[in-house]
Fold these 4 entries.
Entry 1:
Amino acid sequence: MLARLKPDPIPKIFPVPEYLATGRLLEVYNATKQGLNVPWMGVVSMSFAHYPNFYDKLWSSLAPIASTAPFVDACAELRAVAEAQALQLRPSPLGEELVKRGYAPEELNDIRACIEIFSAGNMPYVLMATLARLQLEGHDLGAGRPAGPRVGAPPFPDRPALMQLHHADPSTRAIFDDVMKTLGLPLVNTDYRAFARWPSYFALAWADLKRAVEGPGYADAVLATHDTVVNLARSLPNPAALPPSALIEAAERDAPLAEVLSVVRLFQWLLPGLIVNVGFMQEQLKAA
């Protein structure tokens, strides 16, 4: 089993925003979103793209299986596990309180729809980070079985609007700072910046999630989710038959291997927690 490992020290990350991507990188960004059926480039993939040879090689190995039945099934299984683990943390139902604060049913549905984007879309990114770590650490995934036909998917929704750090007023910025401190992160994930479009909701949801993060059972829930994603990543076909040496060589054309590996480990460490957290926030509004 691949141990859950938080790099120490935390590496600096340099995400390449979509609006700065040109040429080959823009092609890879568009192919990533299309292949993973997601409306946004995650911070994980934009941070990997700071190392263009590495990211291009990584995507070339992932592209043949993205949107195929084994990959889609792995995403569904991972989501089910993460949400089951989140449920054990006893999320508080927030719907009644939000209605008291003036939220209309349509507004609650908008929040649910935003959460759903990340509930579904985070799963392929977790698998991407895990496959990258496995190969950079020398794990040979083998040629595996054929990937099989691609699975049709509905058009993905519009890219969610984000509350960037420089958009936030002092109260929301304080919550962002608390998110980073509590979760031990050097960044605010896209998910939280999307949810912060509704500041009073986000403050209430984060207070309840923080209780769970700091309470008993959270570390075990995240570890169980991490172990599941590692097993699922190992089980995927590898029709590109990319050997670890090829990805390592690509990474070394961009930066020292230790630097690239540290960034990959950071995201492979944090993403299992993120999908548990989003599952928790989804459950908060289920009964509303």
Note: The two ends are 39 Å apart (CA to CA).
Entry 2:
Amino acid sequence: MEDQKPLVPAQKLLDSAESVVIILPGDPSPDLVSAGLSLHLSLKSIGKNSQIGCGTEVHVAKEILGSQEILDSIGSRNLIISFDYHEDDLEKVDYDTHSDGKFYLLVKPKAGSPVPDISHVKYSYSGANADLVIVLGINSLEELGKIYADEKSFLDTAKILSLNISARPASFTPNLFHYPASSYSELVTRLLEKTEIKPSSDAAQNLLSSVYIETKSLTSPQMTADTFSAIACLMRHGASLPTELRPLSARLSQPAFFEAPASLSAEEDGIPIPPEENQPVPKDWTKPKIFRASDL
């Protein structure tokens, strides 16, 4: 019987969480990107407030849908306004609110100092907050890189669910969904199926494409019956097989061992042409053949 213990906390955490943050490790593989992004899209499709982040630049194939939603930060509580300016040139910073409901921030330079250049103003957020954090493929929170550095106080106390295809337990959280699998995309498919979360069509397509790539078009020895179960689940939710993949029979077919050039006729190739069927048979062919020892 399948061990249900790892599933129980995962299902309870996902059921109770209204807001979820998914964090990828630095320099994630295409499989990790596809798995994390697909989980994010699926949680959004069922009404969860989900966001996904990665502390490094993410390189994804054009076939991965929704990649523009991966941000380099997970904070959303505090608005940060930054621009190039020297503190010695600053006289004061103040704010005001008007009856029209707008908020005004005043940056006043000292007399004779340059005015801040609005073309260099940048906006960002900090201060993460969520009911649940989901991390993929890490053994320590430090592997989250910049995001952990920016949001250490939040992540050190957050409720975290760890997803990993390694059986190695994580020390930073007791909430684990660790199963051997051919890929993280297969693992996320298993999680969605077991928790009865219907993947969006984009998520299902991302996951199926990644499973095929990671299993080398279903030829990997790491495949199990669970891999095929994941493929069936994803196809039931709108995913289709990648069009660029040729059927296995076509990849294994070999050309004929001997093959005469098509441009040569039988006569040019030195092959005798048999006589026509309606030609008369030579008379000596119809007589009985007698062999004697002296003929040998």
Note: The domain at 7-78+126-242 is CATH 3.90.1640.10 (inorganic pyrophosphatase (n-terminal core)).
Entry 3:
Amino acid sequence: MIILNKPYVSDYLIQTIKENNLSVLENEIAKQYNLKTTDNKTAIEKYINENELFYTNSENSIDWIMNNLADSHLAKMIKISKDKLIFRRAIQKIYPDFYFREISLEEIQTINPIELKFPFIIKPSVGFLSFGVYPIKNEMEWESFTKKIQVDIENLKNIFPKEVVDMNNFIIEDVINGEEYALDAYFNENGEAIILNIFNHPFFNDKDVSDRAYFTSKEIIEKYLNKFKKTLDEIGKITGFKNFPFHLELRVDEEKIIPIEINPMRFCGWCITDIAQHAWNINVYEYFFKQLKPDWSEILKNSTDEIFYFTIGDIPSNIDRKNIKKIDFEKYLKNISNPLEIRKIDYIQNPIFAITFAKTKDINEIKNILKLDMSNFIEL
């Protein structure tokens, strides 16, 4: 069963649904695409009686699961993974030395900074992408954060439901050193982790927490496939995850692999997971619903040494999107040497204007994209 929802559904996902005759939950988004749908009652019965697999393109769909399948194993898995505090507690046996604590929005404004253990990362305990995520080094940065967080709350409250981004409760946790990676995978019916893609998540500097670009390559898959699978299998064993698609972010510090967060019921957001088709000829939706394992030895044997990446054209937070007259896509795309697919996004309704899949042989192309001032491509 696929649940379609805002903010974005790719043509590739719609094509996959039609070609594979996949079941789609009846809602307003599904009706827009003239798909064969399943009503709520039937969808609930299929899960209960047939152990139906669920996937969604957007975490906006989580509330349907929590409202209609509240006592299910699926709802339990979502609770463990979506709430960062619950997830940290669940894997604490694996990472006993990792520091974290809960803090409410009210406490943020009243707590004495002397009680805090600097440096740290603070973010919504229920969040999405990098919204509301801040690295804090000292008391001066903490004071600045306590003022800016109110602005962030106003900007986000009309974009995402509380099941996706809840700015009332936060988690403070250790700064996780090392390079950041992300992966798309699922736990099969036996609880085994099946990895469908691995990305490196580069940053412009140590203050950058954006999702501007991710890249994958033959070298990355070869280096981390087995290591990450071992970590995932440990997590699956301790949490009981089964028949569960997810997107995981983690950091690698020498030989230490520490998860940052796990996003339930979906792969890389905004249908960016579709890059697996460009890079590896893998349809991740088919692999999940058919419970297939990529033959990575064969895939990598036939692959090139090119770097495949996606980049997000984000709207700077100081720009009122209602005042945007147009985006200069021609100027923007001059920074991308070999675009494979360009997806224009409704920037009035969303905080981004484009998602681009591309490939390159020069990692400096991606580094340069991280430095771009996106306001240069926005006409007000």
Note: The chain is about 35% helix and 25% strand.
Entry 4:
Amino acid sequence: MAGFVRTAPEPTLPPPAASIGVVATLRDRLFSGPLASVFTVLGVVFLAWAIPPLVRFLVIDAVWSAPDGAACRAPGAGACWAYIWRKAGYFTYGSYPIDQRWRVDIVFIVGAILIAWLLIRRAPWRSVAAGLFFIAYPVMTVLLLRGATTLGLAIVPTDMWGGVLVTLIMALSGIVFSLPFGVALALGRRSTLPIVRFFSIGFIEIMRGVPMITVLFMANLMLPLFVPESWAPDRLLRPLIGVALFASAYMAEVVRGGLQAIPKGQFEGAMALGLTYPQRMRLIILPQALAIVIPGIVNSFIALFKDTTLVAIVGIFDFLRAVDTARLDPEWAGPTITATGYVFAALFYFVFCFGMSRYSLAVEKELAKSRNR
């Protein structure tokens, strides 16, 4: 009986055409089963029904340039973007004096540069950027926006601030102060000192147990009662303190979840190295805990950014309040004008919130790669 031994391997066959390419991707993601197929078809039908009218209203039939709202009130007119361009200064600065708005522009530009410097993870001298942003930038912001007669800058009271300026001040201040306060409260809740633990738990549970509106009213009406009249906080500073304290309570629970996720061996290993408690937290525990809860931290930041709209209830003229007030101008009154204003406000908040979400995902991926290496 003769045998045959192959001297060369059989050439590798290509994968089936149905398992690669666009067809395979669509099948796996959109038509992987009966239920997925039904939802895909329903989604396509919904998009086919919703997108054409939106495109027609927002783009095709939109009024891009007009001296007043007459063209936007014409039958068949779409979104009134001319209203947005005409009121852009009001949306951005509120009632800030027109001849002094260059001060706000400088604050915006310097803040954007410092934030970009901090967010680019491979940027050089990030510690310098952090020092400038957290120490020098707030002082410069107060001097420019509030004014100082010694520097030749006219005093602009906070009653005249508004629009995007107030929204960004509220959001950035809340974000910057809520994270360190939240970390301190989370560590205090896990402390072995009864007084520190009791105070931390009480503060967190009280803040999380009442609506934010209540905190804003308390900060606006009750806070001046606890200090002499001459020391009463500014009307913009009161809700700012309330927002920061409210957000710090939620941030504390997010950070506490990260601390509880750290294996006990990390604590024991840090103690075995002879590190003190501050050193253990700063060098070993907190970097790992904060990396774990990045999604929760960013989610709290996004919620805080959107919740800044509530400050309008206590008389603060934020961006949404500016949009809501500008639509009452008789020259620009109209149903499509009102809808355009709210669409523009929605796009404003979406851009900022979506940007924070995308950045957090990028940071998570980079941290995952570094851990794998």
Note: Residues 97-155 form one domain.
